[in-house]
Amino acid sequence: MTAAQRTTRDADQPIPLQPGKNGRRKRPRRRGNAGNGVHCKSKEKFAFFCRDPPNSLLPTVLENLKISTVMKCKKKNHCSLYLNINGTVLLDEKIHGVEICSLTSSTQHNQCTSVRFSKIKSKKPDGKKVTVQFNCFEVSLGQHVFVSLRTIPYFCDIELYKEYQVEDCHNSVLANSIPSCLTGELDYMVNEEKKTITVHVSNNLEEYDYNVRLCLKQYTCQDIGGAYGKIKMGNSSKSITLPYSEILPCLCIEGWSAFTDSRRTRLCPFKNETRKLWDNIAYNPMSQVLSWQPSCPVPVTVNLCWLESRSDDCVNIPKSLITTVYDQVSYRHVDTHPKLCMKFSAASGSWVRCPFSHEEFQGWDVIAGVEDELLEISITSRAEAKFSVIICNRTKPAVCEPVQTFTNLGTAGNITLHVTRDLCSANICILGLRTDVTFSFPAQICNISCSKYLRHRSPCRKCSSPAIVIFRA
């Protein structure tokens, strides 16, 4: 077995990009060669047409076509890729040499060379096996190539073909050896007080400037205004400081060398910083639309909910569930009550935001009390609105049968209803509901206890129930 045979690996096996002695990469040879003492020389010549082979010529005179990748390195991190092609030839006096060709499928670039055997006068070479090697076909990252090995002269049906995929930058050896693979390594430091991110780059190409930017990763990584800079070649600190507005889970740092088609590296270190996502809520008082726009793509389920008084639970409002990743969430005709909130549920947790809890949004309320011999029910609202009041008898924990109903009650202040005191009972509930909006929640008063000796207005005890009361007609 020759030296060429010993270093050959099959194209289907892992690539033979291994350091040589003293850490150097193996350099491709500049000529074709054959083992076992056979003299050969290569020429850039190839034939298009084949001839019929003689009957005495075995169809297996060509064997073991193998392809691998080798590198030639001018200096550290500046290497080029070449095909290393090996094949075995069973010598015959009718074969004068072999032709090796490489065709790149993406560019249709064809490269060919020939290796010719010298005549040996001392003895016949017939039946002797030799290994032919050629490794001067330059290729590029990720190319798909077709390699052929033919006889000279070109005998029909006596040839070998093989496809080969050149490795790309995902290969660990190439990632540190080919200039277009070198993206640099990014490190960062956040200054929350100044709202800046200082980015440091290392292991980048020293002979080029280096671009750095902050971006929001959605379908693509979108620019953030003003968050771009260039680290000049020769900058000893190799760092730059960029401003940011908010730390978001899709906020990324991107860097690349300043040459055409440079490969980029991206660092997205804030994936767990979701707390700011849920603050991007807006309300349009003209159209009465409550909306939330995701600043970053995130799988989330959104509900409108009503914040309970006695606990921090937020009860979902029926028919308000929306699931999204990228799209805006909108609700039309929403009750602008301080207790109406938005609940966000994602894989990492659940959050509640109440956009109407500020002073400029005034809520409404239902109060029950006793005045003389009557049960007094009052609705207070500073905004123009319409309400319904339902008095019902709770026969089961979640079932309440209507006893008396008041509808289409308009108010922009205070409205009072008087009903018979006989309705004061532990099973009686009073529910007030805003009817001029699509999304609201009933105010509920149950367990009403009224003393017959009470002569002045006294509000009844309010009770909150996590269950939505079901009415029976």
Automatic annotation (TrEMBL):
Is Membrane included in the keywords of this UniProt record? yes
Q: Where is the composition biased (Basic residues)?
A: 22-32
- Protein's UniProt keywords contain Cell membrane: yes
Keywords (alphabetical) are: Cell membrane, Membrane, Signal
Q: Where in this chain does the record put each Interleukin-17 receptor C/E N-terminal domain?
A: 109-436
Q: Which domain of life is it from?
A: Eukaryota
Region of interest (Disordered), residue spans: 1-38
Q: What is the membrane topology here?
A: Single-pass type I membrane protein
Question: What InterPro entries does this protein map onto?
Answer: IL-17_rcpt-like (IPR039465), IL-17_rcpt_C/E_N (IPR027841), IL17RA/B_FnIII-like_1_sf (IPR038683)
Where is this protein chiefly located? membrane
What Gene Ontology terms describe what this protein does at the molecular function level? Answer: interleukin-17 receptor activity
Subcellular location, record wording: Cell membrane
What cellular-component terms does GO give this entry?
plasma membrane
User: Which protein, by its recorded name, is this?
Assistant: Interleukin 17 receptor E like
| Native species | Leptobrachium leishanense
